[in-house]
Automatic annotation (TrEMBL):
The entry's keywords: ATP-binding, Cytoplasm, Magnesium, Metal-binding, Nucleotide-binding, tRNA processing
Upper lineage: Bacteria, Pseudomonadati, Pseudomonadota, Betaproteobacteria, Candidatus Accumulibacter
Official protein name in the record: tRNA threonylcarbamoyladenosine biosynthesis protein TsaE
One example GO MF annotation: ATP binding
GO cellular component, one term: cytoplasm
Keyword tRNA processing: yes
Chain's gene name: tsaE
Length: 167
């Protein structure tokens, strides 16, 4: 796996195949703490749900992890921590986030994992960490961007644990 740094707050990783995406989920999983918000950006089929699935499995969830495309949110309780997996693809307006009362899910005993955050722009609480996927020649590339002090700690640990990661 190949990676490079743009600056202190962004780690760019190349994910040649689905296993690499799963591996990122496994690396990220132990670094997350209640209260954190993660945004997952990227086109349909980029790998957002694949990453979330690996992450939840690595935290001990053994059942299926379905895409919340139709339900908007899927809820997991793992070792007393709430994990809310959102997908706002189907929103027509960001205000639907408020109408649905989703603001109440962003608590300090919950981790919020958000696909299509741009569809709730202006209504969604800010991210600690953003994972931005793009299609690369082989597989995918991701930018992992830290947006808070919590996020910076995560990124630092991720960088030191990822094979070939610079810095
Ligand atoms: N790094 C990768 N390289 C190539 N294919 C991948 C990679 N990561 C995931 N995939 C595949 O791409 C698809 C991603 O689907 P999904 O995770 O549902 O995307 P999204 O949630 O972004 O719409 C899956 O078929 C998965 O097997
Ligand atoms: Mg998805």
């Amino acid at each position: 796996m190949h990676s490079s740094d743009h600056n202190q707050s962004t780690l760019t990783l190349h994910l040649p195949d689905e296993d690499a995406t799963a591996s990122l989920g496994q690396q990220l999983a132990p670094l997350l703490a209640p209260g954190m918000v993660l945004w997952f950006d990227g086109d349909l089929g980029a790998g957002k749900t694949t990453l979330v699935r690996a992450l939840l499995r690595a935290r001990g969830h053994s059942g299926p992890v379905k895409s919340p495309t139709y339900t908007l949110v899927e809820i997991y309780v793992i070792s007393r921590i709430y994990w809310y997996h959102f997908d706002f693809y189907r929103f027509n307006f960001p205000e639907e986030f408020l109408d649905a009362g989703f603001g109440e899910y962003f608590r300090d005993d919950a981790v919020c994992l958000v696909e299509w955050p741009e569809k709730a722009e202006g209504c969604l609480p800010p991210a600690d960490l953003m994972v931005r996927f793009r299609f690369a020649e082989n597989g995918r590339a991701v930018d992992v961007v830290a947006c808070s002090e919590e996020g910076q700690k995560c990124l630092k640990a991720l960088r030191s644990g990822w094979p070939d990661a610079a810095g």
